[in-house]
Amino acid sequence: MFSDKDAFKEAFLKKLEMTCGKSFGESTEKDRYFALGQLVREHISTEWINTNERYRIDKEKQVYYLSIEFLLGRLLRQNLMNLGIENIVEEGLHDLGIDLKNLEEIEVDAGLGNGGLGRLAACFLDSLASLNLAGHGFGIRYKHGLFEQKIVDGYQVELPEQWLRNGHVWEVRKPDLAIEVPFWGHVESWKKENGSLAFRHLNAELITAVPYDMPVAGYQTDTINTLRLWSAEPAPYPVNKDILNYKRETEQVSEFLYPDDTHDEGKILRLKQQYFLVCASLKSIVQSYRRQHSSLREFHEYVSIHINDTHPVLAIPELMRILLDEEGMSWEEAWNITVNTISYTNHTTLAEALEKWPIRIFQPLLPRIYMIVYEINERFCQELWQEYEGDWTRIENMAIIAHGQVKMAHLAICGSHSVNGVAALHTEILKLREMNQFYQYYPDKFNNKTNGITHRRWLIKSNPLLTKLINDSIGNEWIREPEEIQKLLAYENNPAFLEQLSVIKKKNKERLSEVIRKQAGLQIDPSSIFDVQVKRLHAYKRQLLNILHVLYLYNQLKENSSFSMPPRTFIFGAKASPGYYYAKKIIKLINSVAAKVNNDPQTRDQLKVVFLENYRVSLAELVFPAADISEQISTATKEASGTGNMKFMMNGAITVGTLDGANIEIKEKAGDENIFIFGLTAEEVLKYERQGGYNSMEYYHHDNRISKVLTQLTNGFFPDTAGEFEAIASSLLMENDQYYVLRDFDAYAKIQHKAGLAYSDQQRWLKMSLRNIGTSGFFSSDRTIREYADDIWGIRSSHIKV
Ligand code: 26Q
């Protein structure tokens, strides 16, 4: 690494000259960003190679995290920080008259994910490397990440995202390690000499998977792990093909990331992506294993493969295929190795989100894989028959293939040794309800791993002011041992400390206000309460409850002269899946309320509504530190965990939330008095669900706050929106309000009122905020990853920094 600032400056100027062929004076900020990026990446190279060598020589067990999404965001600052050269670089650039912050802004987010699941994968990579664990990611190098969102006339408009337009400095293309992935064709079988069957996949269409490797540097360690992303290219020698068509069809496989649309019918391209990821990754894993071992008999002792939701579940039949067809193992031996290698995380209980593939799509596309899945299912059903003889319904319910479909979650549970949920309540719901029959059959496979977030990005990087205050107060041991952040609790009654907390929050609010002023041309008041809901738009997350409540507050301010409240700014950020009609209506509604409220001179000093365009990781980093209130208001039982809730907590925002997902654990850690809980509990929701719902019409008739806001949706209150919000009103009244928005309205209004009062007592609020920060250490993904390492993967860090 650079020994000092001057060595850095020299290397940087040289790199700049070499990469852009311009003098320093002529170079643009973009030139400088790319030169710096390349310089840093090259500096990583030696350690990267050393890490790989060390893993090879020590035969350390390797973990591979397979995920269809990695939502990385920007990497420059993270890499500088983790490599321990942030100060040298910042100061060196400063000497040259360059502000590192401006260069950071040049980097386009790597947005290869939808939301929670993809961001979790990115946080996990950071924790794995920072804990010196041998854990690597495998994913897809989509040409277009999640769409870019524009708001036009209050409507969401989607534009293709272009993160690769100027190249990506953090990746290294490795064409010599390309792998061919077969689709279509047919399978031939014949008898071998020993009487067993052999299989060959013929006439397949081959798609080449080219790896692009990205270094994942641990925080001030010398471990550099790898994130390998596969790009689809045409195979080298297509015969008898219309070349242009063929090129287009193959490249399509890694063309774009599917938006999370739980209502979407399975698309063949999506299944192609899944097998593409799995086939290329397994081959690469097996190749590197073979460099150290002569047979695959002990594969599971040295390799763990983790599947992030069911999207990469074909890793199970693919590993079986390798062991059976290529290694010639018996079914029993291959199955034993496979189950012991694979582990699976479930991220949802929504039945409509569980993946199923029609056989008519699956079988022709992946003929050999289908045969193996078929055999897995046969054997599984036979086993079930031994245990539950005669119980046809149960066996039908649990089967992997049934009614013309392949059920991916069933395959995942049957073919792995560990199945985990992502928060305590979620895991209980899996065990006792959604996957109860599997839990009865395999009680030991089920376990909980409450999610976490990397405190290095979500506190140290995004909130430098708070980080400094923490370091100045309790030292920096908490960075390596995040639960040590609880030492802050000693400052609970220290007015000077609380005052500093308040100053920092204010500055972070000013920073965000400035961004909002520039982007939306909207002035917001940094001394108002910043009440924030940022997450994907989904009916179950209930952005609707929030905005209807805002409308109610507006009505109060207009009509009720005795009504008063501390000034509030409600901030929303959310992308809706392009085909999710209802979600898009809610975006329009938020913007219509914003237009009304923000332009009313009578209320605009007390109430503002902001819809942040194109919510993404880099914007999130400005949002969490600036929030006073964190909205986590999903219908109980529906949000598996949430991770935004943890990011808010770590930055001192107070949660207004339901007893859902990880909110429950946040409440346990922070204490009942430091969180605002409201609404139906999971048990109450489940009870209603057993009864077929509740009567939302009653709530409409008996609560005039509700009838008023719902009437406003359709009576022309919002100019030029005739018919616009019928679907929303109808879902609440005619379709019985599936997510209990009206049922929870009163409780929500009351808790929001309580939160407003608490804020007015600033000393009390700051103490609550401190309690949240001080107890957030549990939610570091370092804790989560240690649990995965100990309980699921059986790996430990053997490496001490030298
Ligand atoms: C499925 C089929 C076709 C196309 C896309 C999809 C698809 C893509 C992404 C389905 C789901 C997702 C993403 C799900 C997700 O992000 N789940 C969230 O995971 C977080 C991490 O565990 C949890 O905190 C959240 O509660 C959960 O909603």
Write the layout of secondary structure elements.
Layout: H1 5-20, H2 29-58, E1 62-66, E2 70-73, H3 76-83, H4 86-95, H5 100-106, E3 110-112, H6 116-130, E4 135-140, E5 148-152, E6 155-159, E7 172-173, E8 179-183, E9 186-191, E10 197-202, E11 205-217, E12 224-234, H7 243-251, H8 268-290, H9 299-302, E13 303-308, H10 315-326, H11 331-341, E14 342-345, E15 356-358, H12 359-365, H13 367-387, H14 392-398, E16 401-402, E17 405-407, H15 408-414, E18 418-421, H16 424-434, H17 436-441, E19 446-448, H18 455-461, H19 464-474, H20 477-480, H21 495-520, E20 529-534, H22 543-559, E21 568-573, H23 581-598, E22 607-612, H24 617-623, E23 629-632, H25 644-650, E24 654-657, H26 663-670, E25 676-677, H27 682-691, H28 696-702, H29 704-714, H30 726-733, H31 745-760, H32 762-774, H33 781-793
Parallel strand pairs: 1-4, 1-13, 4-12, 13-14, 14-18, 18-19, 20-21, 20-23, 21-22, 23-24, 24-25
Antiparallel strand pairs: 2-3, 5-6, 7-11, 8-11, 9-10, 11-12, 15-17, 16-17
Helix pairs in contact: 1-2, 1-4, 2-5, 6-33, 10-11, 10-13, 12-13, 21-32, 22-23, 22-29, 28-29
